[in-house]
Design a protein that fits this description.
Strand order of the largest sheet of chain C: 4-3-2-1-5
Structural class of chain C: alpha+beta
Shape of chain C: elongated
Strand order of the largest sheet of chain A: 4-3-2-1-5
CATH topology of the domain at 11-72 in chain A: SH3 type barrels
CATH class of the domain at 11-72 in chain A: Mainly Beta
Shape of chain A: globular
Number of helices of chain A: 2
Number of domains of chain C: 1
Structural class of chain A: alpha+beta
Radius of gyration of chain C: 15 Å
Largest sheet of chain C: 5 strands, antiparallel
Order of helices and strands of chain C: HEEEEEH
CATH class of chain C: Mainly Beta
Chains: A alpha+beta (126), B mainly beta (109), C alpha+beta (94)
Largest sheet of chain A: 5 strands, antiparallel
Distance between the termini of chain A: 33 Å
Number of helices of chain C: 2
Oligomer: heterotrimer
C-alpha cells in the first residue's frame, strides 16, 4: 500500500496530523495532493506543549511540514478496496502497475545500468 | 522459523530499498527520537511509510518502558532515521517494565 | 556517484555508522543506494546498555540523510584507486 494511496483513501475521514514543529491538527481530510499537502475542515489545533487549543473551521497544511499522520484503521480497508477497483478498471495499463519495476517496488538505480561509469572500482569483483 | 529479510533477498542484485520489510514487524527511530513499532504495510521512493498496528515505546531513566497504542500511521520519510526489521521472538524476551534507558536524542543536522 | 560506487565495493564488510542523533550502529554492509541510504545486517548498537532500543533488530535500513560518519575497515579501502577515481571525477566535471 503506497502512503499516498492511503492518504487519498482517507479523504472524508478524521485524522490527526503532527507537524515537524510539534503542533497537532485534528480534523476531517477534505483533499490532498501528491506532495502530501492537505486541506482539513473542523480542525482543532494543539500547541507543541499540548496546553493550548484553537478551533479552526478549516486549514491547509503544506506537506513538507508534516511529521506523521494518524488515520483510522478502517481507512486501510478502504484503500485496499480502492486499489482493487483501480486495477480492475485497468487504469494502470501499459506495462506498469504490477510486479517488476512498477509502482511499489521503487528502484534507485536510475537510468542506464549500474552507474559504475567513472566510479571507483575497488578490489572487488562486483 | 520465519526467514529474515536478509535471507529472503539473497541472490542477484541486492535490494537496497525497504521492500524486503513489507509485511514484517519493524522498529523505527524517528528524527525526534521516538521509537515506533508496527507492521510495515507500504512505502515509497522517499521512505514515507504506512505502519499498521503501530505503538510507541517511551523510555525514561528511572521508570520502565511505557507503551502507547497509536494505530495506523503514515510517517513522512524525512522524519525517519532508522527502520529495523524486528525479530519478534527476541523482542518478546525483553522485559520492558524493568528496562530503563534515556530516550534517543533528536537528529541535529 | 563516486561515493556510491565506493560504498558498493564495501558491501559484505563490517562498518560502523554514526548517526546525527549520536547513535552508532555496527553491522555488515548489505547495500547502499545513490542517496547513500544504507542497509546493515547483523547489527549491534555501540553502547547497547545506553541505547537498548534496537536489541531485537538484526538488520536495518538507515536513511542517508541522518548519517554523520561511516567508519570503514582500513584494509578494504584502496586509497590509490580512490585517488585516481577522485581525479577522474574532477576531470569529468570540469
Amino acid at each position: 500500500m503506497l502512503p499516498l494511496s492511503l492518504l487519498r483513501a482517507a479523504q472524508g475521514h478524521p485524522m490527526l496530523i503532527e507537524l515537524k514543529n510539534g503542533e497537532t491538527y485534528n480534523g476531517h481530510l477534505v483533499n490532498c495532493d501528491t506532495w502530501m499537502n492537505v486541506h482539513l475542515r473542523e480542525v482543532i489545533c494543539t500547541s507543541k506543549d499540548g496546553d493550548r487549543f484553537w478551533r479552526i473551521p478549516e486549514c491547509y497544511i503544506r506537506g513538507n511540514t508534516v511529521k506523521y499522520m494518524r488515520v483510522q484503521e478502517e481507512v486501510m480497508d478502504k484503500a485496499v478496496e480502492d486499489q482493487k477497483k483501480f486495477r480492475k478498471h485497468g487504469q494502470g495499463r501499459g506495462g506498469r502497475g504490477r510486479g517488476g519495476r512498477g509502482r511499489g517496488s521503487p528502484s534507485y538505480r536510475g537510468r542506464g545500468g549500474s552507474g559504475d561509469r567513472g566510479g571507483y572500482r575497488g578490489n572487488s569483483n562486483r | 522459523m520465519k526467514r529474515t529479510a536478509s535471507e529472503r533477498d539473497g541472490g542477484g542484485r541486492r535490494e537496497t530499498g525497504l521492500s524486503a520489510y513489507v509485511g514484517s514487524a519493524i522498529s523505527i527511530i524517528t528524527n525526534d527520537g521516538r521509537h515506533i513499532l508496527g507492521t510495515l504495510k507500504g512505502f515509497d521512493q522517499v521512505q514515507n511509510l504506512v505502519i499498521e498496528g503501530s505503538r510507541e515505546r517511551v523510555y525514561s531513566p528511572d521508570e520502565g518502558v511505557e507503551t502507547l497504542e497509536l494505530g495506523l500511521y503514515l510517517m513522512r520519510g524525512d522524519c525517519i532515521a532508522v527502520v529495523g526489521e524486528l525479530d519478534e521472538e527476541a523482542d518478546a524476551e525483553i522485559d520492558l517494565p524493568s528496562l530503563k534507558a534515556h530516550p534517543i536524542g533528536d537528529v541535529l543536522h | 556517484m563516486l561515493f556510491y560506487s565506493f560504498f558498493k565495493t564495501l558491501t559484505g564488510k563490517e562498518v560502523t555508522v554514526e548517526l546525527k542523533n549520536d547513535l552508532a550502529i555496527t553491522g555488515i554492509l548489505h547495500s547502499v543506494d545513490q542517496y547513500l541510504n544504507i542497509k546493515l545486517n547483523e547489527i549491534k548498537v555501540v553502547d547497547e546498555a545506553k541505547h537498548p532500543h534496537l536489541l531485537a533488530v538484526k538488520n536495518c535500513f538507515i536513511r542517508g540523510s541522518v548519517v554523520r560518519y561511516i567508519q570503514l575497515p582500513q584494509d578494504a579501502v584502496d586509497t590509490d584507486l580512490l585517488h585516481d577515481a577522485t581525479r577522474r571525477e574532477a576531470r569529468n566535471a570540469a
